[in-house]
Write a structure and sequence with these properties.
By secondary structure, this protein is α/β, with parallel strands linked by helices. Helices cover 42% and strands 16% of the residues. It has two domains: 82 residues, Ribosomal Protein S8, Chain: A, domain 1, CATH 3.30.1370; 202 residues, P-loop containing nucleotide triphosphate hydrolases (Rossmann fold). Its main location: cytoplasm.
């Protein structure tokens, strides 16, 4: 049964109201869609109509108390995930040995963006679960769409002065250390045998970024990890590989680029350049989202303070 709830913020504070509503009332529109209600505003007075009007009104009240600062859409999504349980379902994959549920509200929001956008770019510090969540969401997509494949890629960029040419073996053996973390995540989520079975069947492909030039990848979800180590030209190349019925997730930690001095990060460039394109979602993790050992958060803070 539909209900109507009227709320009024008193005393009126135009700055808080502006922060609450967001750019072009984007925050209000998102809340209305999430709760499937209609929200009308006149000054500090809000009229909310729909089956979940009271929940939506409560969310407006709670966010108004936080609106001393600017609230962007991610802030609203995280609050709703924490307070109202509006998080996506836990990704699963047939015969998977482990399920990965979001460990933080920000991870839940990131997963939801991946499942509902054609392209998602994500930046954040080490230990926030960027790659794990991206792979888990991709496996959910594979489970829902049997004709889709998963393509995992990373740039082969040396860290700390190491040079790939000095590593032993042929080209495949040389690039394997750069792709190993992606394989380890698959083993963690699917198990060794299931992972190797999908790789053998071509359902999962793991390739260096340089090998993607010239390809058009249809019916696939592509994950580009460690994207802070791409140049703007490389990331443009990767983005334009997207084919029909495709999705792409791009993740990285802009603060840990191994590119030569003076070479800007393609991930940082893309997150500015593509910010307002429909169908492309942006997500940022913060230090508070770190889910690794508690010391990781302290280490990150120490480096930030020194800079």
């Amino acid at each position: 049964m539909s209900e109507t709830v009227n709320i009024s913020f008193s005393p009126a504070d135009n700055r808080r109201l502006t922060n609450l509503c967001g750019v072009m009332d984007g925050n209000i529109e998102h809340i209305a869609r999430a709760f499937e209600v209609a929200i009308r505003r006149r000054g500090e007075q809000f009229n909310v109509r729909g089956k979940s009007a009271q929940q939506a009104a409560d969310t407006l009240q709670q966010l108004y108390t936080q609106a001393e600062r600017h609230l962007d859409l991610v802030d609203v999504q995280i609050h709703m995930a924490q307070e109202n349980g509006l998080v996506p379902t836990t990704p699963t994959f047939k015969k998977s040995t482990r399920r990965l549920a979001p460990k933080t509200a920000s991870q839940a929001v990131f997963m939801d963006k991946i499942l509902n956008h054609n392209v998602t770019l994500c930046a954040g510090p080490a230990g926030t679960g960027k790659t794990h969540v991206a792979v888990a969401a991709a496996l959910q997509r594979l489970s829902d769409t049997p004709d889709t494949k998963l393509v995992l890629t990373r740039p082969a960029v040396e860290a700390g002065g190491e040079r790939i040419g000095f590593l032993p073996g042929d080209m495949e053996q040389k690039v394997n250390p750069y792709l190993r973390p992606l394989i380890d995540i698959l083993h963690c989520l699917l198990g060794y045998q299931e992972t190797e079975r999908h790789i053998a069947r071509g359902r999962i492909e793991i390739i260096p970024l340089a090998f993607m030039r010239g390809l058009t990848i249809d019916n696939a979800i592509i994950i580009l990890d460690e994207a802070q180590n791409t140049t703007a030209a490389q990331l443009k190349m990767a983005l334009t590989r997207l084919g029909n019925n495709g999705r792409m997730v791009i993740t990285g930690d802009i603060s840990q680029s191994d590119l030569p001095t003076g070479c800007g990060s393609g991930l940082a460039d893309a997150m500015k350049r593509l910010n307002n394109i429909s169908g492309i979602a942006m997500h940022r993790f913060e230090e508070s989202d770190v889910v690794r050992h508690p010391l990781v958060r302290k280490i990150l803070r120490a480096y930030e303070e020194r800079n």
